[in-house]
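Handout, page 2. Input:
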Amino acid sequence: MATIWKGSVAFGLVNIPVELKSAVRSEHISFRLLHAEDLSPVRYERVCEADGEVVPWREIVKGYEYAKGKFVVLTDEDFKAAALEQSKTIEILDFVKEEEIDPRFFETPYYLVPSKGAEKGYALLREAIRTSEVVGIGKVVIRQSQHLAAIRVVEDALVLELMRFHDELVDADDYAFPKADLVRPQELKMAEQLVANLAEPFDPSKYDDDYRANLMRIIRAKMKGKRVRLEAGDDEPKDAQVLDLMSRLQASIGKSSARARRSSGRAPAKARGARKVRAKAAAQKRPRGAARRRSA
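Output:
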């Protein structure tokens, strides 16, 4: 993949030349807006709200709306004055425990790939972060924008994750959440049993974007002039409020237990024991001569 940024990671007096490369890819399906009559692409026009006329780019300026209908216009010189120096160094300011960081801070991951000749310094920083079980926190300027950034270890890679600044997070106190005392002990016990039944090692390959897969099936069929019929989903209405929580939990536990048995490929111990008892009883009823003929 293409290099997004080149520079170095600095901690103390150690500088490690690196390149920033994408660690994720977008699989979203993009569409163009077309004129239904002749399928010609539709252009977006910059239309003035006051007179309805199309405005050319040379007559467009950027404004900050500080009150309804009130704007402050910013010029190119204003943006240049506010711009930060294009530093080519990510300086690690602090090392912190990862569990101390609210997951909401993390935004977009990138691989830090060592430049030629920087392999030893790269491995040194990686192993120091790994053994210390910490995350490096610093700042980086990419495309005129400054970002808070975390450097963590993922297998043999250093991953830089762009982060949100603290004032970008919405305080949980802005919303109302239910208290724990609403839950009865027996409900909690059954919910914990359901969680235990559904517990599995994380396997991301199990989870696919079903909506995207359905769209691609329809698109491929239409390209061939065909129509595709997709299976209908579960149309069972979902209650806005679950009135009988215990019965729902019991039904869920039954379904999860059956799924666990299917995935393991083994019947529960009670069923295996019953099969053994039936087999033993059948053997006792079988004529002795028949048993000898089979053994012969």
